[in-house]
Amino acid sequence: MAAVDSFSxxxxxxxxxxxxxxxxxTASGEENPTGxxxxxxxTAYNNALKCLTNQSSVCxxxxxxxxxxxxxxxxxxxxxxxxxxxxxxQTLIQLRCVSLVWRDFRFNNDASVSDLESAITTxxxxxxxxxxxxxxxxxxxxxxxSILIIxxxxxxxMGITI
Length: 162
Fold this sequence. Notes:
By secondary structure, this protein is an all-alpha fold. 60% of the residues lie in helices and 0% in strands. It has helices at residues 2-27, 41-53, 78-84, 87-101, 113-126, 136-157. It is built from six helices and no strands.
């Protein structure tokens, strides 16, 4: 009888734990991607995309930011983008969200979050929304790869295998 009572208590705790695990998995970050822990780049990338889907309906058609990293704003539409609809502010909020979930996020055009923030700030000031892409992160990745390859070659000449 004690074994049955112990089994039912154990299975009851297992059911309760599964229930809370399912609840927390479904509620975690659906509306707020910054609430999720980004343990790997795939999770961080997906959360960054969630930030970009959080768009405002007040933005002029075609000016919402997406993973392409392109700002579809020119001098003639800058007044509507920056002042009338306040879409620029909404885009800066999206970019802040992206930087919170993945600091080193790069858009498809290789622009960083700070590149786009600068383009929006400059564009709303003088009407020039040109995105200047800083390639510092790319250069660092290339240097790291080169150093790794050179190290492997040197170790190979020394007869050390990895």
